[in-house]
Amino acid sequence: MFTGIVEATAELVDIHTEGTNLTFTFESSIAHELKIDQSVSHNGVCLTVIDIESTFYKVTAIDETLKKTNLGKLKVGDKVNLERCMPAHGRFDGHIVQGHVDQTGVCTAIEDQNGSWLISFEYDTANNNITVEKGSICVNGVSLTVVNSKDNGFSVAIIPYTWEHTNFHQLSVGSIVNLEFDILGKYMQKILARK
Question: Hey, how many other C-beta atoms are within 10 angstroms of the C-beta on 103?
């Protein structure tokens, strides 16, 4: 389980195709702290570390993961947001993030608000995912608060620290992002649909 509080970024340095899977080699300042079999969130996607060497490590994304996320669109040189799983004795600074991306969304606007950024996203409503005003959403692994919730989209306000310490500063209109909707909201929606 994760909290959506990004602790580092990693740069993609190699992509290797194995059948329908992709094995990614990343370079990161926290690579030396990782261990094989550890779960690490990459842009909100839970992947298992399979190899580590110096500042480099490898993870594999299977076909199912590639179909539901933006990982298959990554190119060498791209940066991803990283978060290691939450320790049982740690603080819960974000919200419950499983690392199981529900779907992708597309960036539709980035507004510089002279000290913060308002970023808007749209998504396909076929999966019945929803957002609510002031609720939680995980975008590329970052726990954020929803503003301007609508049926097929929402906006988030980004503070300078988040802008600088995540890959959000690399987003542009048309960028594809990973979305994990709030688990509590998903359970509530399912319960209410049964009544």
Answer: 16
Domain ranges of the chain: 8-84, 103-194
Instruction: Say yes or no: do domains 8-84 and 103-194 share a fold.
Output: yes
Spell out, as residue ranges, where the chain has pLDDT lower than 50.
none
For residue 181, the model assigns a pLDDT of 96
Whether CATH 3.40.50.300 fits 8-84: no
Residue-wise pLDDT tens digits, 25-44: 999 999 999 999 999 999 99
pTM across the whole model: 0.87
Q: Are 181 and 131 in contact (CB under 8 A)?
A: yes
Residue 138's CB is within 10 A of a number of other CB atoms, namely 30
**Amino acid at residue number 77:** G
Question: Rounded to an integer, what distance in angstroms lies between the CA atom of residue 159 and that of residue 148?
Answer: 17
CATH of domain 103-194: 2.40.30.20
pLDDT value for 193 = 82
**What are the pLDDT digits (tens) for 11-30?**
999 999 999 999 999 999 99
CA-to-CA distance for 65 and 22, rounded, in angstroms?
A: 10
Go through the chain and tell me how many residues it has. 195
Query: Containing H/E element for 192?
Result: helix 183-194
The secondary element (H helix, E strand) that includes residue 79 is strand 79-84
Which helix (H) or strand (E) segment is 67 a member of? helix 63-68
